[in-house]
Amino acid sequence: SAPRFRALLDLCKRRGFLFPSAEIHGGLRGAYDYGPLGAELKRNIANEWWSYSVYQRSDVVGLDTSIITPHNVLKASGHVDEFTDALVDCLLSKERFRPDKAPKLTVVETPKDGDLDLKIPIMAPDKTIAKQWVTTIAEQLVPGAVVSRHKSDIFLHAERVVEPVEGSNAEGKIFLKRTDPNMQPITISYNGYVAPGSNSPFLTASRPFDLMFKTFLDPIDPIDRVIQTTLSHPPSSTTTVRSAVDTVLRPSMVYLRPETAQGVFINYHNVLRTMKSRPPFGIAQMGKSFRNEIRLEHAIFRTPEFEQLELEYFVPPWESSYWFGYWRQERFAWWLRYANDPARFRTRDHTSDELAHYAQGCMDIEYEFPWGWGEVEGVAHRGDYDLKQHARATGERLDFVDESPGVSESVPAGAIALETVPKMEDGWPVRYVPHVVESSCGLNRSMLAYLFDAFDEVPEETGSRIVMRLHPRLAPVKCAVIPLIPRPELMELVGLVAGSLRRERVNTVVEAQNLKIGKRYYRHDEIGTPWCVTVDFESVKDGKVTIRERDSGEQMRVRWEEVREIIRDRLNT
Ligand code: ATP
Question: Which residues form a coiled coil (predicted)?
């Protein structure tokens, strides 16, 4: 799996899909910049989602809400109290177990009878720190041990510090060899979690860790405020320091939203009023979310700053099971539309102990990445939890007054048990808080999944070459217009073809480098360009050009004026 991942990351960097952020300043772990091709690919996925969710439906509208979110909103939603992960302290490095700060310890081999042979990969911000950690861990395991030296009963050495796998990490390894058969077995934790019954020397019990990024809406630097307060009223204990700091900072504290959904819930009544919406209806939103993830992993799979494509679909309570089923199918089908290998996509229902406290049901859509199955989207039946929470916290009525309740027109006959639907004799109108079915898709993870899905290494006589079999609507460049050789007499027609495509808003490049035509085709195969249009010397005489198709390699000769229509039709099928 690692070579495939490395090859893809290498391609992404070499061809301008993805760059480690701030690389010339040493990089920042977990931060990535999207290059010219990555920005297009990401935008194309987002546009496909928006078009499918909003433009192709009559019952969904879009919204774009603030990233900066007041404390009250996230207190009401439950995030302030519940949105935490388990954090463990690493006793060895005396550091908190954070990927940017502390070693990541992993069991590679558990001790069996005989030799103890442990390998401990360490992810550190840079090689120097990785080396320091290797030494620290080695010394803590065997007090007084010096890396790469013999100790009385344990042979211990630190292996090379290997090159970064991703971002600006370095990875170190320690091998411990037990020579004393009486030595107690040691179990190292996996990602900070100790398997039950093990006796790891590393880790403290877990405690909650706030996943949200706090910031301050304050013209005065919050640090200055804290300094002023503590200088004027010196606190006497940790508890009083905390409460003094809280008092000073709380009024200006805001959060970067950890999901886009809450912006939708607090605008539910605005949309209802202005759009005259009536359940079932949906609100779609795409945008950035932020999570102070303890573990950052697999390039853009898990980063602190990411983008979500979320749809909150509000339904009458008696229709909620039907709509949950509906969106599960719809969303999975959406993913498969762009897939080359559908077998690498699957759905997985949450078991009852996995369900978030607010959810009545949840299904993940997963992709089989080289390191295993990973969630790319969640579809959840959130009941009336969110609207009720915000209604309770604000005193606003977030219910819907239904003058003519019944089964919605868009629900097929027989899909809902009639005894659950309110009847005339129950009293008119009916007031209810709609239930919500949510689909929450990660845009960056979608991009990574579709990049892996498209990544094809085609064997050649000498080695192999990469063809990115991206769906044409996702491909960053749709069409490359290529003069057979870059001579002025061909360039006029090249310009006409490219211009006709650009007027159709088809992202087109002119590939006039002084390279063999085959090389230029391959360069475009490598970034997933579905069509190349070649202009040769015949073209100047008869006005005909050649369209080459990426996947089949098929070539067709057409009049240059037809190119735009052919490509447009193919993009729309
Ligand atoms: P995970 O279990 O992987 O942490 P999650 O269940 O917390 O994900 P959700 O809260 O359901 O994720 O968010 C919906 C989607 O947002 C996920 O399916 C994923 O695609 C994306 N997502 C969540 N966290 C991140 C992140 N840190 N980096 C990139 N994408 C993310």
Answer: none
